[in-house]
Please model this.
Amino acid sequence: MPLNLHTTEQHAQKTDPQAPSALVIGSGFGGLAAAVRLCAKGWRVQVLEKLNEPGGRARVHHVDGYTFDAGPTIVTVPFLLEELWNLAGRKLDNDVELRLIDPFYRIRFDDGDHFDYSGDPKLMLKEVLRIDPTAGPGYAAFMAEADLCYELGFEDLGCQSFVSMEDLLKAVPSMVRMKGWRSLHTMVATHLKHPKLRQALSLQSLLIGGNPFSVTCVFSLINALERRFGVHWAMGGTGALVNGLVRLIEGMGGSLRTGAEVRRIDVHHGRACGVTLASGETIPADIVVCNADTAWTYKNLIDPKYRKVWTNAKVEKGKYSMSLFVWYFGTNKRFDDVPHHMMLLGPRYEALF
Model:
């Protein structure tokens, strides 16, 4: 159902009118999460969304009686959502039901065989050995290396900001330990020889739009994340998470404004001081947080005179593509032989990347 943005009694908490103000551009998960954190720190927060409903790439489409999530679907790090709800003084399960998927997903190979990928260590080993009876030691070695990448790449570096050469240099020892110059597929292939197992244990980077033949092996941490925290589905779809986050923001005194397209981030003395909307309206703020695409932000929202590094020429030289093509369809029948989360692989596995 469309989100009701009217203030209700549960949104009674008010922010100090003298508190500093923040504008958040974009109501995707990143923008909504930033807004929750700013509200928790006492800022007066307004989220600006150019579309008529929140969610960004996680928005919901309603077509011919069907409801479609626009992009992300599964949740692999529920504790990050729980943290946001805790900041608002609430519990995630009071507003959103996350349900563990079992199996996490089924990988169907082009010859009709399939691999059920789950969080059960015994079942996973059984699946691995069914495909290659000699793969036990290699699978154990892969999991150990994935755990190391989780420890170093997620726990240690995941929340670090790399804005200077010094920041990058500090990360070098960890990258060396992980041998981060290898691709994810190369790393998996050092432990497992069967092509089906190499595919099944390296395609996880596709969940974030990454080609396993080119992204760093650090992304093997996804395997460890899934084993630790599971793969979950939000009942009601991703829109349930979006609506829940909006309610958190409103309950903390923040607000969401839809149909508010930002035309320009205003800058004064080298600092963002507000925005100008497509309508011509200007909104001042102490800080501006932009969750729009980086290239779009630099090229379209910030005047070139304030971009000495990210010039239009540099932005134009970048190679951009959509990370995936999504095809939605509705059906009026059940397919009980198709699990909730299924991946179909064709014979041109590497070529399609």
User: Anything to note?
Assistant: The chain is about 35% helix and 15% strand. The domain at 19-98+235-317 is CATH 3.50.50.60 (FAD/NAD(P)-binding domain). The chain has two domains: 19-98+235-317, 102-230+325-352.
